[in-house]
Amino acid sequence: MIPRCPHCRAVILQKSLDGKIKIRTNIVVFDEDRAIVKCRRCKTDVPVDVQLGAELRKALNGGPRLVVRNSLDGSATDP
User: Fold this and answer.
1) In a domain, 22, yes or no
2) Which of 7, 18, 66, 77 is deepest in the core (most CB within 10 A)?
3) Cα–Cα distance measured from residue 12 to residue 36, given in angstroms and rounded to the nearest whole number
4) Domain count for the chain
């Protein structure tokens, strides 16, 4: 069964021809124990059964933050 948005019934996850699962959304938010996607059609928060692996979670939690330089005035911004 393909997960759909409970509000508008839009497809959230889609299986491609090569067997990969694609998340059909622009935003995925990972919490400590769950993931939430934003429905592209109605913007409802939809929980999905997706977890980050230990290596990726470790990479996201540690290390330096990304610094983006603004090319217009040369200043740095920290997200």
Assistant:
1) yes
2) 7
3) 11
4) 1
Say if 54 falls within a structural domain.
yes
Which range marks the domain in which residue 12 is found? 1-61
Give the model's pLDDT for residue 24. Answer: 81
Say if residue 8's pLDDT is above 90. yes
Predicted pLDDT of residue 65: 64
pTM (2 decimals)?
0.57
Q: Does position 26 have pLDDT exceeding 70, yes or no?
A: yes
CB distance 15 to 3 below 8 Å: no
In a domain, 3, yes or no: yes
User: Quick one: which of 6, 7, 41, 8 has its CA closest to 24?
Assistant: 41
Residue linked to tokens 């934003």: 38
Look at residue 70 and tell me if it is in a domain.
Answer: no
Distance CA 33, CA 46 (A): 14
